[in-house]
Amino acid sequence: KTITAPPTPTPVIPVITNDEDTTPPKQEFKDLDSVTWAHDAINDLFGKGIVSNGDEFRPNDNITRAEFTKLVVLGFGLLDTQSTCDFSDVATGDWAYRYVASAQKAGIVGGTAEHTFLPMEKITRQDMSLIICKALKLKKDLTTTDTSEFADQDDISPYAVEAVLSMKSNGIISGTGDNLFMPKNLATRAEASVIIYKSIKVGQ
């Protein structure tokens, strides 16, 4: 009796288009033409899974305190799903709860005198600097070698002065022209992306 060997299966050869290119594809947001200075930051954060918004990023929209806190928590690896917070205006069912709770546990956010977090309020440039400074200090010691002040230094609230100067000295924030910081101006989504992108690089 003749035994016929089974046919040899055709090997599956993977198609490699570029074995040296292992970077994830960049998100082609369709509304970034007005913020070319923020392209690299936004695309980098998208590649890390920190920002995602479909085809549109809305870079010039103001960002809320809750939204910014989420970006910082994800950017610095601070997410703790077991954490809890006791802000009276952040309910356990809110989408932002676990991010705000993680940030409070890490000590990078605080509340108001009424122990509220004001999650849906737009965040100011000085408060953004304060939160990111606290997050960055969890990663490394920061030195303030550049002690030069902004032209509107007196407009910065006392609680944020040290953080703003530290972020300026470490190249994370800069003025808006004429050496102005505009501390109480509301931050945009593009500005938030750039400051988080730069601070992550400094903290590496």
General description of the model:
With 204 residues, this protein is mainly alpha-helical. The protein is globular, with a radius of gyration of 22 Å. The chain has 6 helices and no strands. Helices cover 33% and strands 0% of the residues.
What is the β-strand count? 0
**How many H/I helices?**
6
Percentage of residues assigned to helices = 25-40%
Structural class: mainly alpha
**Cα radius of gyration in angstroms:** 22 Å
The description of the largest β-sheet is: none
Roughly what is the average pLDDT, rounded to an integer? 86
Helix-strand string? HHHHHH
Residue runs with pLDDT of under 50 for 5 or more positions: 8-22
What's the shape?
globular
Protein topology:
Layout: H1 39-47, H2 65-75, H3 97-106, H4 125-137, H5 161-169, H6 189-203
Summarize the structure.
The chain is 33% helix and 0% strand.
Quick tags:
204 residues; mainly alpha; 6 helices; globular
